Amino acid sequence: MSKQARVLRPEAHYITEEPYYEPVDGEITVFETAWRHGLPVLLKGPTGCGKTRFMEHMAWRLERPLITVSCHDDLTASDLVGRFLVRSGETVWVDGPLAAAVRSGAICYLDEVVEARKDTTVVIHPLADDRRELPMEKLGELLQAPSEFCLAMSYNPGYQSVLKELKQSTRQRFVALEFDYPSAELEARIIERESGVDRGLADRLVKFAHMTRNLKGQGLDEGASTRLLVHAAKLIAGGVEPVVACRAAVSQALTDEPDMLVAVNELSSSLF
Amino acid sequence: MAARTPLAYEAILAELDHCLEVEFTFLHSESLAASIAGLPADAQHFLLDWTRRAAATSTNLAFEFAQRALTILGKIELEVIASWCLHAMDNYDRSGLHAAMLVIRDLDGFLVQGHQRATGSLFESSVSVLNHFVQGLDGRQLKVERDETAWTNGEVLYLPGIMAHFDNPEDNFQLYKAHVAQLWAQTRCGTLNIELAPRFAALPDPAHAQALFHRLEVLRLNAFIAHELPGLYRTMHHLSKTLGDAPLPAEWHEAEQALGTPGVGVEATLDWMVRLYDAPLPAPLCYQGKLRPEATWAARQERLARDRDWLRQMLRVLADEILGEPESPRETLPAFELKEREEASGEELLPFEITLQDAPVPVPEAVRGRLTSVILDLGEIPPEYLVPAGDSEYDPDLFKKKENDGQDVWSGTYHEEGAFFYNEWDHARQAYKKDWCVLREIEVEPADTNFHHATLEKYTGYVRSLRRTFEILRGQDRLLKRQRHGDDIDIDALVEAWGDIHQGLEMSDRVFTRQHREERNIAVMFMVDMSGSTRGWINEAEREALILLAESLETLGDRYAVYGFSGWTRKRCDAYRIKDFDELWNDTVIGRVCNIRPKDYTRMGAPIRHLVRKLGEVEARAKLLVTLSDGKPDDYDLEYRGKYGIEDTRQALFEARSEGVHTYCITIDREGPDYLPRMYGAANYTVLDDIAQLPLKVSDIYRRITS
Ligand SMILES: Nc1ncnc2c1ncn2[C@@H]1O[C@H](COP(=O)(O)OP(=O)(O)OP(=O)(O)O)[C@@H](O)[C@H]1O
Ligand SMILES: [Mg+2]
Question: A109 and A240 share a domain?
């Protein structure tokens, strides 16, 4: 491992090595076609099921830079578009990630878009319909997106909060791709590939994941995601006992409720 | 202390006659007195003392106690006898004389338990973990309940109240788990799918046959567990070894081999039962539990009928969704079909997808669950389970007889003052009936607030943790100053910066203010079912739930109102005011909550429209209507039952959403899942199986849907 972090400018950073991604159901073709026609894409699905990985893969495939914005409730429109900053007594304009992506014809990926405030979300509207333009009010400019530019966002409909539903006027602008946990077979293959554990162990981990997914809505908000399984598998590959690895990487990540923790741990120790 | 003098027969008799009130109770105290007279002084005093105490609770109990105690004095420590008597009195207070007498009669049980309570694992303290555990396992949704012995009817796993074979709670808990695994395996491996009783009866000694079959079946189930849950199997093996379970006789080894082969069915076990009928029978294993063939078979037949009806109703909903609403009643609909999924692995319980007219259909979770249940019972899904219900079957309630018609009774209310009129949706007409319902607001009379105190007491710990949780949620609304960027200019900072520039200094770029975290600004309306069907503990649970909820909301500061609803035909829809948005949570309001009483029927459309209108009158960033109900819409007039009521409610909720009101439903109806998705949309409801959970869950749900 190198000791220093590399500094990258996202709008000029191209992914050169193919990110490993197992297609589940034609999503690559749909995305590619949408991109060719300038349509924005919405990725729906639970946490840790491969949305981000899919975007990286698509960025590589389409040879575009990928600019990811993690949305949160403090995110303002200027955080996306840009703002004047005062530097050494002078005001200078700095592009936000969205504007930077439009300028460079990159893929802009808004992660967990429902977390952003509604008034923030609307700035993407003109960019997400056939106008494909980004008004930059403070600058008095209108950015017209080049054909390479692509807008994508993710959304997890599983969280039941009524305050975090996506507005119809937003969601109806997007081509939606539904993501879910892969089939058992595929999920085991992903774990094997990502961590280096053997197939038998990967199968057991998938089984464990299914057990926790059975508990969704019965005391767990979510079952174990593919991501958590990959984490556990990596620990196991590194020499940690499977039961211990599951406890650390999966159970603790799923719940704090004592009885549920015991139950989930009992389930994993039943398997290994 | 001076040694006490022994009492004479007369004195003892007088004392007994007095405390046992023999004058009225006619208890025969003479022989008891004679026996006591023969005891040493200390024992006499001890016994009389406790008899007197017990008599203050019940003379019968005291008499029984004295007689029993006589037989064990000197053999058992006095403290133990005293605590046995106390335990009986406790039981009397809780459950009456009969329960108390049982304690007295079962001294051995008390002694064993006394030891067990110290080292055993108790059902009450394990059930929550075991329930989660069993739900994590594949297959049917099983429940864990308590019974005398461990057994299962295929849907409930029954476990004894205490596990105490080991001298430490951990191993005893593992023993519970081992039982759960065995019983679960029975439901997964088809043990219960054969009518066993006649097969046992065909042999000379049916009881022997059953014991033999069970012990053999354990071999087959263990092979399955060893394959599916190797870790657990190791534990089971260890438990069994530690407790010294008998090894298999040599004659059994071949059977063990054969039944351990993957894919072998229950018939194989029955074959071996016949073959080994005369061989020695090893004792049952420590985690084996019992078989109850008759009860199990009956439960299976009932379950199958239930699952079939439920599935057909639900498929009807799906079919209507896919094919569009019918114009005329539909008696026969195309059947759904099963298609093997290509990527399905051999181990999956449900390796199918479901198609309608050759197009794959997304299957709701609840349907998947029922299909799994049928597969477990039958090994397949017979085609007749996949035929959507025809119109005449759509809602069995629809054709129930009713003696008279309520409309005339209330003809006067139509013109009453202060009444609101609301449209109702007629799904057959696909149009509104104008001003069809008359709704009045009625204020609930406050009662005393004892129920409130009792509830807070009952849930002390929980209320405390609720407050904590909700405090965190509340957050704080702060204006951050001197920010690098923000929504507004921080004048103070700007002036300072300006000054700096003129001084020739570098100016700071922290000249903005930013609002940190928005105010919640939520208004929520709770609509509580006060229909007659909530009578009893649903009503009580609703009141408890409201009290706990109000405590949370007070912490949170969200604005809330509470209305009850019930009614009697379209001419009398009532909305009971319990708390309005601008009312405080004071004794009057609390008194009203305590006085929520079940009334009549459940016509939901009109009250929803009314409460949405009330929500329309408040200013809030987010508005929420949460209904708490025990079942589907239903009214005295036949028309509102079944589909009509569901469709009108759905329409009312749809109107609510277009008014910007979010809706959420909490229901205690087991059958809920078949109509709720249609009414509320798949994500916007919760079904509670267990009424006892309601008070605990409501605040939890509220937190989830508003954070
Ligand atoms: N189809 C897939 N192909 C390859 N790897 C996958 C796939 N699905 C999931 N993974 C693995 O799961 C991990 C988590 O996926 P990812 O980070 O893309 O989740 P996500 O859907 O973006 O989650 P979140 O919503 O929490 O951001 C990846 O790092 C990868 O190891
Ligand atoms: Mg992601």
Answer: no
Structure tokens at B489: 């200019």
Domains detected in chain B: 9-119 (no CATH), 121-291 (no CATH), 295-399 (no CATH), 478-517 (no CATH), 522-706 (3.40.50.410)
Question: Same domain, yes or no, for A164 and A223?
Answer: no
- Ligand 1: residue whose CA is nearest its atom 15: A50
Q: How many domains does chain A have?
A: 2
Cβ–Cβ under 8 Å, residues B694 and B542: yes
Residue nearest atom 8 of ligand 1, based on CA coordinates: A50
> Measured from the CB, is residue A20 less than 6 Å from ligand 1?
yes
Clarify whether residues A126 and A204 are in a common domain: no
Listed in sequence order, the residues at least 6 apart from A90 whose beta carbon sits closer than 8 Å to its beta carbon are: none
Instruction: Indicate whether A18 and A145 sit together in one domain.
Output: yes
Give the residue from B10, B17, B53, B52 showing the smallest Cα distance to B34: B10
* In a shared domain, residues A264 and A201: yes
Q: Which residues of A touch B345 (CB under 8 A)?
A: 183-185
CATH classification at residue A50 = 3.40.50.300
Tens digits of pLDDT across chain A (272 residues): 557 787 777 777 889 999 999 998 889 999 999 999 999 999 998 889 999 999 999 999 999 999 999 988 778 788 899 877 777 767 788 899 999 999 999 999 999 888 887 778 888 999 999 899 999 887 888 999 999 999 999 988 766 566 667 778 888 899 999 998 999 999 999 999 999 999 999 999 999 999 999 988 777 888 999 999 999 999 999 999 999 999 999 999 998 888 899 999 999 999 99
Give the separation between CA A63 and CA A241, rounded to whole angstroms.
41
Which residues, at least 6 apart from A243, have a Cβ–Cβ distance to it below 8 Å?
A: A265, A268, A269, A272, B231
Q: Which domain holds residue A72?
A: 5-178
Residue A233 Cα to ligand 1 middle (Å): 14
Residue B209: burial class (beta carbons within 10 Å; 0-12, 13-18, 19+): buried
A40 lines ligand 1 (CB under 6 A): no
Indicate whether A75 and A38 sit together in one domain.
yes
Whether residue B135 lies within 8 A of chain A, CB to CB, comes out as: yes
Q: Which of A178, A212, A246 is the last residue of a domain?
A: A178
Is the distance from CB of B439 to CB of B575 less than 8 angstroms? yes
B706 contacts A162? CB cut-off 8 A:
yes
Does residue A64 share a domain with residue A17?
yes
pTM exceeds 0.80: no
Q: Are residues A124 and A234 in the same domain?
A: no
DSSP B61-125: HHHHHHHHHHHHBTTB-HHHHHHHHHHHHHHHHHH-HHHHHHHHH-HHHHHHHHHHHHHSEEHHH
Question: Which residue does chain A place closest to B178, by CA atoms?
Answer: A270
